[in-house]
Amino acid sequence: MLDPVHESPWIVIFRRFSSNKMGIVGTVLILLLVLTAIFAPWLEPYSFKEQNINLMNSAPSAEHLLGTDEFGRDLLSRIIRGARISFVVGVLSVAISVLIGVIVGAIAGFYGGIVDIVLTTIADLTWSMPAILIALLLVAVIGSGLESVVIAIGLSYWAEYARLIRGQILSLKSATFIEATRSLGASDAVILFKHLIPNSIFPIIVAATIGIGNAIVLEATLGFLGMGAQPPTPSWGAMMSSGTAYLFISPWVIIFPGIAMMLTVLGFNLFGDALIDILDVKNGDSKK
Amino acid sequence: MDNIVEVDNLSVSFDVRGGLLLRKIGSVQAVNNVSFSIRRGEVLGVVGESGCGKSTLARLILRLIEPSSGKIRFNGNDILKLSKNELRKQRRHMQMVFQDPFSVMDPLYTVFRSLNEAFKINGIIHTPEERLSTINGLLEMVNLSPLHGHSYPHQLSGGQKQRADIARALALSPEFLVLDEPTAALDVSVQAQVIKLLDELKEKMNLTFLFISHDLSLVSYFCDRIIVMYLGNIMEILPADAVSKKPCHPYTKALTDNIFSTIPNKENSIPVLEGEVPTPFNLPPGCVFASRCNKVKSLCHEEAPLLRDVPEGGQVACHYPLFDISS
Amino acid sequence: MTFLKVTDLSVEFTNNKKSVTPINGVSFEMKAGEVLGVVGETGSGKSLTAQSIMGLTPLVGGQVSGSIQFGDKDLLTISSSEMQSIRGAEISYIPQNPMTSLDPVFRVGDQIVEGIRTHQKMSKKDAKQLTLDIMEELHIPSPRQVYMQYPHQLSGGLKQRIVIAIGLVTNPKLLIADEPTTALDVTVQAQIMRLFKEHTVAKNISLLLITHDLGVVAQVCDKVAVMYAGNLVEYGDINSIFGKPNHPYTQALIACIPTMGMIKGDLSAINGSVPNAGSYPEGCRFHTRCPYIKSQCKTEVPSMKSLSGEILTACHLY
Question: Starting from the edge strand earliest in sequence, which strands make up the sheet with C62-70, in order?
């Protein structure tokens, strides 16, 4: 009797991941963001709120490694604290998008018919509107501030996840193992939640990883337009926005938050790309 | 006669939609007015080529697809009248073994977890010890080890996956199994293992089988009686040993002629049934086999023949059967 | 002059320091006009052997060794442009799945014409006529209409006939057919095998038929080569191999096939399953499943020996 190759799939994934250079870089960058966000109060050399008019717009120096902004606040500290905002906004808004998207898409794909047509139309309409437009409209309605921004971003991006999961479920619906489970007497709920959704979730995870990057950028954009977190909350976007007035005096006020954002988004994108590569290889092996 | 399953005038048709507004432009009669019984303890084979409806029939009998008309009785109960809940309880007695070992189990579940699901769904609660011993017992019945139980589907060979599928079908201790081409995707040596296993299990667990296959040799080896189908209709029902000796329907004979035996035969010509199975879409009236039959006469194009009894045992649907059946 | 002589054909793939030989030391011969069946289960290497003869081995990390003597050329040493001129003209290959071997965006008739004009200078008009002629010969109904169809509009049997037409239209010396009827209905399979008999056997085109189906082999072949896990285990005249096989695998394989009139219970099985390409056992690759195993089998690879003149067998029993 042939003995099965007894390697847990998790070990296989881990091994493949550790040989994927892009993925490692991405993971490092994400870890950097997460750790900075968690340990912000201990990492920041100064309070992010502390103003020092004497030092306003001062260039990077020994005391203020990244310089100061127009209120003399230490830029490094504000960027560190801003990591928290970006991370929380990124993760929470994507969580909202994924939740809405998975529910809508799964129902549309599973039940089909008129339900599918209605839900897909709603998703398509949402998807065809630029996210920034949706976010602006929502913020105009519910008011600005960090909570509003999270909700607005969450509601802007859900359509993509709905489409993804709907497509997966449509193709998996007729798989033999679904038929087999049904013939055991499984209810629709069991089939949907215990089989269809878990098997469809991987593309969602990849899209969500990259989506966190998008959400962070959108938050920065909203912050740039003055809609996001209110002062003195150091959102990177808001920092860049207020820094534009001083572009030629103290460009570091824009450059450094910008670099922080770029590295963060890059990290998520690299991680997501690596996930795609890894899954392809795993699926290739399993075609036995 | 103790019949475990009785099928009366079962039909199912699927709408074909086309055009911009996807309006109904016709229908495909996948299964047409099919009637037969399955005796308790027998292995009844269903054989036919693509488009004959055998896979659809398999799913109809378990009510995995709803028929358009007809009756299906299981142990005397009309299963078409059951509610969703009652049907779920009934399903414990009748299970299906599927064709495609490669996608028959959830790729994210170990074999153990897939088997356990049968119990979970049906509210058969086990203590962890009971669960372990029951499932290991099932695995042992199909010659798999607990190590196989803890594996994922992609770590198993085709034959092992097929056996795991049989274990899943047996988990609820059914009386009746429908096997839909269970060995079609397997090598011939692995097929032989699975067939032997099925034979043993049938004896041990007092099962009745409905065995679907395109392989007439396999079906005549393994089955007691055989239904020959063509384009959704039953052409003939006959005892397995009559297939090679005395087929009554011209199509059965054509299938028999086209079995390639392992007796070298390069010199002789191969008997051939011309043409191909037509698309089952908007079929002309009369016998569905008329377009390819070499014994066809005008009546065949006008009137579809009904199933008539054959004195030697069995039934045939043909206006001009290969031997005289009037008695 | 030999028609086709394959000697010690091996393909080795190295990946991450692991080397795998999906075919190892395969040797056989074909005479002109002969029909040779290469039979085996999954993982036997039969398709890979056919592809190697065509020079189509997937060469990513793969090394082909041995020699394939076709006429006066060794196909493994000639240049790729020379191989290209032979491929399709002198040796034609019918791949496994007709559903995917036809280009879906071209009419099927045009694809046959393309096959003609790649290897011969012929006007489009003449090539089209030749196409219609060969379609008639292959019993394709209404050739003019079928010519204009796209692959997806045709049934499996018709598609296979088109693929065979492409293979035969250049009058090759050798036709290699890889599982030509696996995906087809039984009655269509009979039609296609009859076609093979009429057009290759009658026209003296040599046919190398790759299949897992011993019944198909019995209908058309003169000789049969039995492969298991990349090795050629037995090879010879078809009547001898089917009538009195020597190799335990051949014996077991024939006994596994359900035949009409077989009594229930007579079907025997082979324990275990074919090993993966990455984990072939040492010595004879069949020893883990062989009922006649000796200690020699676990360490020494058996060589092909001529037994009774008609068959060559690679087994330590002899």
Answer: C18-30, C4-15, C62-70, C73-74
